[in-house]
Predict the structure.
Amino acid sequence: MDTGNQHQIDRLIASRNGDVAIIFLSGPTSLNTPLSTLRQYDTICVNGSADYLIINDITPFIYLVTDHNYFIRNTESFFHQAKAARHVVVSKELYDVAKHRYSERLSALQPIIIHRACKSKKGGLKNYLKLKLKYRNCDMISYTAPLSKKGTIQGYSRDIRLGYFHTRTVAYAGIQLTETLGYKTVCFSGLDMTGSKGRFYEQKGSRLEKTSLDEDLDNILDGLNWMKTFSKMKVFNLSNDTRVPYELVPFADSVEDTNDH
């Protein structure tokens, strides 16, 4: 475990505001979450969703980006959004892409860098042995690594300092991050998985950025099922228009509604 990362995560835990967090995503139903709610609870925003909070004078608690391609396509937006947040968390892949050309600007953000548990999602003997050696006797990580290369590695981490599992959506990294920080209840805002409708912050009439949600949906749902089995948090979906079954991530009409569960 990286000592610097350990201390940064410790500071995040210490600066937490309560036991409830909102993961503010890019689905159109994110706009249904009241601004008063977003001001009241710690909000982890991703990619371009941060702009909505910033425009409405809400300081994101954490700005989380794991997709290095988002950074490449939206470099100036990334730095603007990251600068406005209290804390910044990025993937090792993004950091490696950015550090050569933007090292000073990146260093000024003091980002927390998170690493994947396994670089490849493909099964096979090599990855099976790597994970078995890496996480032997570790009760904070749960995973399956098929011996066949045709299989897909699935897993969940309750301590992102040890690595996180990737399901082709930043939402999954976000849920592992919030668990690491010790939240008891987490609500997804905008967990729609309706890629054809675009991201809520994309301008009408403009060309929509490509999304792989359709081909990745089964993989994402498998990951959320793993989360449901292994997570110790209460996790809810505020979206009333989603392709994620409510038996997997229960619906809540509001954050306050989660108190009744």
In short: Residues 213-230 form the longest helix (18 residues). The domain at 3-120+157-260 is CATH 3.90.1480.10 (sialyltransferase cstii, chain A). The two ends are 35 Å apart (CA to CA).
